[in-house]
Design brief:
single chain; about 180 residues; alpha/beta; Alpha/beta knot; seven-stranded parallel β-sheet; 8 helices; 7 strands; globular; RNA methyltransferase activity
């Protein structure tokens, strides 16, 4: 077995990537403090063809060297927008027929393994601040809450890890519906 080289990977150019059809998913970062986490979310969004990232409140925005350190150029390929207020954005996305899901531990949450995205709907997943999670007002306006099942003692994941888990799960379920 031979490790693949960069040439073997046959990557799209940034322009080709921008023109590709994306999965029906946007990510909403609710007051994320760590610029490294923001960069990691960009990289995950690029890897899994996410439509757009909304950077809300105090969430840092490109260009910034700490974001770029982990994004590795994904800030150029993934569409993004800064929005001052997460709740106002959630209301706007709902008006545009997005189904809103907060990724959080909450009463009546849906375990990620039980979640099944509906064909023909666009989704927005809200991921919260490293200390306080998703704001309660945002959860109150969400259509559902997704919870990543966890079995250790900590019951929390870094936001960049949680993003990778939920986006991969969403993508794999959407792809299986297309087959």
């Amino acid at each position: 077995m031979r490790k693949l080289s960069m040439d073997d990977l046959n990557r799209d150019s940034v322009e080709d990537f921008k023109n590709k059809k994306k999965i029906p998913l946007v990510l909403v970062l609710d007051n994320v403090r760590s610029l490294n986490n923001v960069g990691s979310v960009f990289r995950t969004a690029d890897a899994f063809m996410v439509e757009k990232i909304y950077l809300c409140g105090i969430t840092g925005t490109p260009p910034h060297r700490d974001i770029e350190k982990t994004a590795l150029g994904a800030t150029e390929s993934v569409a993004w927008q800064h929005v001052p207020d997460t709740l106002e954005l959630v209301k706007e996305l709902k008006a545009q027929s997005y189904k809103i899901g907060s990724v959080e531990q909450a009463e009546q949450s849906i375990k990620l393994n039980a979640f099944q995205p509906e064909t023909g709907h666009a989704y927005a997943l809200v991921l919260g601040n490293e200390v306080f999670g998703v704001e309660q007002d945002v959860i109150n306006h969400s259509d559902f809450v997704l919870e990543i099942p966890q079995f250790g003692t900590k019951h929390s994941l870094n936001i960049s890890v949680a993003t990778g888990v939920v986006v991969w799960d969403f993508l794999s379920k959407v792809m299986s519906q297309e087959v």
